[in-house]
Write a structure and sequence with these properties.
The protein is built from 14 helices and 16 strands. The protein has about 475 residues and is of the alpha+beta class. A hairpin with a 4-residue loop joins strand 1 and strand 2. It is elongated.
Length: about 475
């Protein structure tokens, strides 16, 4: 009887162990992947791309990493009225709802009188218009009156709003931009110009005397940031619009450069033109594509009637000179190194994300040095979802691209194996029931053996006492 009981107990224990550990050993773990790529480093260096155009300055930025793909005096400080209008619109969409009523002041009405309204509507003192209409008026017609009204709605007076503009420019890294007004009106240091009116280098002298200025590159970066705002991009992407304002006839509005959308054959997605005071202050900013590359482009100065041809030429040549290429593929093995746990178990590395970059068509544009940065030391457990390090690539213009890598296998600790087994039990009710039944039987057998042994011991004690009495 004793031998049979031991065999039964041994068999039950074996069944329980097999039922518990076999699913752990042969199941596959599914984990979700995550990726964290560090911000790229913007660098003003670029291939020497030559594009014939009439502008005094131009810049093309690819929006993925804000790299400068084309530059023509892109870092030169100039009078660029478009920067003031774009910043005014950006602050408006960030701070106000589109349907907020804006009251026209005497100052805004006076500024509006200096321009011919493109939609036939005069802004008069005391009138109220929804913000969305004034933003469309600013973007479609480069409206000074709309810009002043928006500034006063937010800050009360234009000068206080200008402080907000400069603060926002600083936060965006626009180090070569200073605002003095919202309209983009020329603001120079008159004292610097006194006595030099006959100078042979008057244009350069005037540029040095500017108190409000920006650069083509700063303006492009401003537009790229603004286009990330849903309301801003929606409004700037419109070629035309019908606006209904209570108590007024239907207002028909059309962007002053609406032909650009058609002529670009889909490469221009949004555009703003500023032609306020002659060809020397003409500027055109667009968001669109150059080939398969998302870009923002800016032209400053040049011939007013050539600005559309200039921007289209720049987009075409840039698109023919660059391409988007694959840098890494998710799940592909990184062959430049391995990792190991603190107890010496080695494992390989896999890229966690497919990463793209823009390069010249004739040049991979990658430096030979590829560095691996470990996040170790690595303790068990090692999960497939972990980020264990980064591979660092550097482009020839100095742009740094970091790509996260993870382990090519899962390495569990003893505790993690138990945790995983419990997880498997939760996902498999039948297995859980089997283990519970086996455990209950084992406890029952152990209890039965304990009771039997106690009873046997009690009988033995009784026999000993009886024997002692007889003697």
């Amino acid at each position: 009887m004793k031998a049979v009981s031991r065999k039964r107990v041994t068999r039950l224990v074996s069944v329980m162990i097999l039922a518990f550990f076999l699913p752990v050993l042969f199941s596959q773990v599914l984990v979700s992947a995550s990726e964290s790529v560090s911000p790229p480093v913007a660098n003003p260096a670029f291939p020497d791309l030559q594009i014939t155009n009439s502008s005094q300055a131009a810049a093309v930025l690819e929006t993925g990493r804000m790299r400068l793909l084309y530059s023509k005096n892109a870092g030169s400080r100039m009078h660029i009225p478009a920067s003031s209008k774009l910043m005014t619109a950006l602050l408006a969409v960030e701070r106000l709802e589109m349907d907020v009523p804006v009251t026209i002041s005497n100052v805004a009405a006076a500024a509006d009188l200096e321009q011919e309204p493109g939609d036939g509507v005069l802004l008069e003192n005391g009138d109220k218009y929804p913000l969305e209409y004034l933003l469309l008026r600013l973007m479609f017609y480069d409206s000074d009156g709309a810009a002043v009204a928006i500034a006063e709605q937010i800050s009360g007076v234009e000068s206080d709003f200008v402080e907000l503009m400069n603060s926002r420019a600083g936060s965006l890294g626009m180090s070569d931009t200073v605002f003095r007004n919202v309209t983009g009106q020329l603001d120079v240091d008159e004292a610097m110009l006194e006595g030099n009116s006959q100078s042979d280098n008057l244009p350069e002298l005037t540029r040095a005397a500017l108190r409000q200025y920006s650069t083509a590159q700063d303006t492009a970066e401003l537009l790229a940031t603004a286009m990330q705002d849903t309301d801003f991009s929606r409004l700037l992407s419109k070629e035309s619009e019908y606006v209904v304002i209570e108590g007024q006839p239907l207002i028909s509005m059309q962007n002053q450069i609406s032909d650009l959308w058609t002529l670009s054959e889909g490469s221009v997605l949004a555009a703003f033109a500023s032609n306020r005071s002659g060809s020397s202050e003409t500027s055109l900013t667009i968001s669109g594509t150059a080939g398969d590359i998302g870009v923002v482009a800016v032209t400053v100065g040049g011939t007013a009637d050539q600005q559309i041809n200039d921007i289209l030429t720049i987009l075409r040549v840039t698109g023919n000179s660059y391409m988007t290429d694959t840098l890494t593929v998710a799940g592909e093995r990184f062959t430049g190194g391995q990792e190991q746990t603190v107890d010496g178990e080695r494992f390989g590395l896999l890229y966690r994300k497919t990463t793209y970059y823009v390069r010249p068509i004739q040049d991979l544009f990658l430096k030979d040095t590829i560095r691996y940065v470990s996040f170790g030391p690595h303790q068990r457990p090692i999960q497939r979802s972990m980020i264990v390090g980064q591979v660092v690539f550097e482009l020839k213009d100095g742009t740094v691209i970091t790509v996260n890598v993870g382990p090519d296998q899962q390495i569990l600790s003893d505790i993690a194996m138990i945790d995983h087994a419990l997880s498997q039990m939760q996902s498999n009710p039948n297995l859980t029931y089997l283990i519970l039944i086996a455990f209950a039987l084992l406890i029952g057998m152990m209890a039965w053996q304990t009771v039997a042994n106690v009873a046997r011991l009690a009988r033995l004690i009784q026999l000993i006492r009886l024997e002692q009495k007889l003697h």
